[in-house]
Protein 1
Amino acid sequence: MKVLVSIKRVLDYNMKARVKADGSGMDLAGLKMSMNPFDEIAVEEAVRMKEAGVADEIIVVSIGPSAAQETLRSALALGADRAILVETPDALEPYHVAKILAKIVESEKPDLCLLGKQAIDDDANQTAQMLAGFLNWSQATFASKIDVTGDAFKVTREVDGGLETLTCRKPCVISVDLRLNEPRYPKLPNIMQAKKKPLDMVPVASYGVSLSPTREIIKVAEPATRKAGIKVPDVATLVQKLDTEARVLS
Ligand code: AMP
């Protein structure tokens, strides 16, 4: 079984996001970038499938700037076999990412595409669904457990109010949720070995996908700053303020 894992290079979750002064987007200059945390979980799941003998090859793909090579190398250090970087300086919409991934799937013919449920920079939660749509493949989103059963995957999904279990026939697209597994840290020898694993750089134009925007970002703004709190002397004053000032009691 061949597994394709799609990984995005995003602002590290420990960094404080800054908005550009003109409100046109995020200012990422000088900030640490890392693999999208949900994609680390997707890589870990693929590696566990290989260790369990149900996957033969893991291909990791990223669509982004040349610096995303570093992100792909970390996935290779975690156990992926080879990597493809679709190079573009532009931040693409999930629609374009899914179109490009569909082209890669056509040539690589994986049995399973694993994606994160969402990228923590745009919080779109769209790429996996669109990819399955373009390929006309079955899909399971928000997986918290995946069992490979012959030519199908039994997937437990986190849904409102509980867990749903369903079966997807191969080939399919699965997006992974937080509780699926706990990703490992790469070992030093694996980091060294990863430098020798194949990493193909492909210019985005070679996929022939139109990248004209389908949407326009009107404005990006910081969240409103919270007003400072106040201290009240006793419970009676608290209740009175909640009633007459905050108006949350009646
Ligand atoms: P999103 O739909 O943007 O929230 O992203 C969901 C998932 O799609 C991510 O967790 C990745 O697996 C994949 N993805 C999104 N953008 C990219 C990208 N530029 N390169 C590779 N994978 C991506």
Protein 2
Amino acid sequence: MKKIILQGILYDEKSSYLKGPALAPPKIRSLFMSPSANYFAENGREIAPEIFDDKGDFEIDTYFDIENLTFKNLKNSEHLLTLGGDHSITYPVIKAFNRIHGRVDVIHIDAHADLYDIFEGDKFSHACPFARIMEEKLINRLIQIGIRTLSMHQREQSKKYDVETIEMRHIHKATSLELKNPVYISLDMDVLDPAYAPGVSHHEPGGLSTRELLNIIQAINVPIFGADIVEYNPTRDINDITGMVCAKLIKELAAKMIENN
Ligand code: MN
Ligand code: MN
């Protein structure tokens, strides 16, 4: 398999509550390369930096630039790992992804459904990306996992777009997904309980443990074409706890991409 494209998006302009996720990509890279840990994923694969075709971190002038930038980075390749950034980046990234792979299935792991039609006057807020993705039919199937903040409006949106939801209160179902097609995984760090990942803008109690999140990823048994890790906010982190989780997730996601290829 070709190298996995790695890109960092330094962007948090669509965050509704706190800035900070724009600082995440270089922080995650440095923790990924920290001598405090080795490069081995739990399945035995070594995820050294050479596994990646690292395109670097990108400052973003205009939100819509993220699509063309991603398209350019991904062209002639297959697998993509993006470090955000707030969750708004997933819509333009999936738009670019769709131009190359067509309509894949998406596993969205988050405390929030991010399905608002509009949030605080902005249709591209980090609370809206999956409404845009579904209304433009950029993907086949949307499976949301870990959700624990559904408002009435978001329940309606979820029904309207045929979203398959495994709410946090039913989380035991998340390790037996019935998957047939290649997937893209969008991973919002606030799906984790704030006890495991304090470095996020929105602390939502009652979330996943790091172990439960890894079990969900490791149970995926179809090809993984792309993934993003978003909403890590280094300004809220304590002793790099959350940053080290992101670094481990790079290893686990990349190892799964290779294993399932
Ligand atoms: Mn989100
Ligand atoms: Mn979230």
Protein 3
Amino acid sequence: MTLVMGIVNVTPDSFSDGGRYVDGEAAIDHGLALLAAGADILDIGGESTRPGAERVDPAEERARVIPVIEALSGTGAMLSVDTMNAETAVAAVAAGARMVNDVSGGLADPEMLGAVAASGADIVLQHWRGHSADMYADASYTDVGREVLHELKARLHAAAKAGISPDRVVLDPGIGFGKHGDQNWRALRALDRIVALGPRVLVGTSRKRFLAETLEAAGAPGAVDETRRDLATAVTSVLAARAGAWAVRVHDVTATRDALAVAQAWEQGGI
Ligand code: PMM
């Protein structure tokens, strides 16, 4: 079954958890709660990538995430660090992370691919066209699916050249990163072609703006609150699983686990 990656943001702001998990103790508790809810992987990040967000000083980023990784590594859970900084990635692996989730696919820090190669960790290479402060500057495509596919293939080759074999790579279409509204849906239509490249594939749609826009356009009237975004995320998780995704990255682990279990029963004709 598709794995569920629970999100632990150790930041004062993010796409959606604004201010709730700023302190380390709360982040550790949140990580434990996600594991209790059935998360297979925890993704721990100290830098917001919300559109418009400014960069965080790498030393501050490490001060946020390392104690949380150290504390959660005692659980034996698979931990991933959400960072674009090579030094943070190396420190996180030393603290117990087994995977580096780089939303820039190794583009933001020229040291990243070499550092991960040497660390022995796996790496998530996400489709990315620029930092959050100016995320939409390059959001123009003639064929989103083809371009995402092509650019991910280029990152896969760069990783191989740095000494990271494809079995250590996870590809991610980068939903919400340099993509407006429907561009996200078109990138998701390319998921089976991304899966066909060979490496594992991760999909992150959780609570993202394009889901709210879709519900506003087509769903029931009224405010699109967190509950409705989580329900929409559970649906995209099932569809990502059906397209062959190895894992989905979500805030609400319970909703997605439930949706995946129901879809599996449907496909198998029983539980
Ligand atoms: N999305 C966010 C942060 N990190 N990492 C991967 N691999 N894929 C994503 O889609 C992704 C990510 C932004 O979401 P958040 O601020 O709500 O965590």
Protein 4
Amino acid sequence: MISSAETPLPGLFVAFEGGDGAGKSTQARILADSLRAAGHEVLLTREPGGTPIGEKLRGLVLEHGHGEVGARTEALIFAASRAAHVEQSIRPALERGGVVVTDRYIGSSIVYQGVGRGLGADAVRDLNVWATDGLWPDLTVLLDVDEAEGRSRRTAGDAAEDRLESEPDEFHRDVRAAFLELAETRPGAYLVLDARQEPGELAEAILSAVTSALEARSAAVRAHPGRVEARP
Ligand code: TYD
């Protein structure tokens, strides 16, 4: 399950997910700029990272050169980074009524560690429910990209691949399939887009979905002041 049954917080939580090289960071930034221009308080953030300790954990888990990193260790580092991120940044911003836009969240752990590393989607989901105290996004934007296109985009300009990115094509093929499967289990909570579309077209589709979610959230706040149901 990718959305909480209930998120009694006034803000809106949007996550970007997808394979490496899908263009998530670019689209997250464009969305944040558009929402700020419309007068919203926006926290634009990323995982792993988003807090001082999270950025240290990011280095540990993504850089080469720390010796062997087992799958469980890897899952726990991502979850630890996420716990700090939710506690120190995301939840406070949502409590203030802001819009949080994060580049990756729990979906990445379910897919990369649960499926890619073979730890099991359910086990990794449960670990992350605990780490975040059950905070799920209201809307997840999945930018779908196939492994060949993703690899050619991320290595353009000789950019070095991190520990996860440098996994073989089969790993990234499984990651892509698992993201699509996850989205199918909660269609109402996902916007799935073909990452090969023009960046401007993608940005328009994303802003339109987020604007609808914001309107639904405002209507829910008006209908039930003091108790806000999460979007499905
Ligand atoms: P990302 O920040 O998207 O990479 P970059 O900014 O270098 O483009 O993500 C870093 C890598 O971490 C990516 O390969 C996916 C992986 N990852 C996981 O395996 N599990 C997780 O929970 C998260 C958040 C990321």
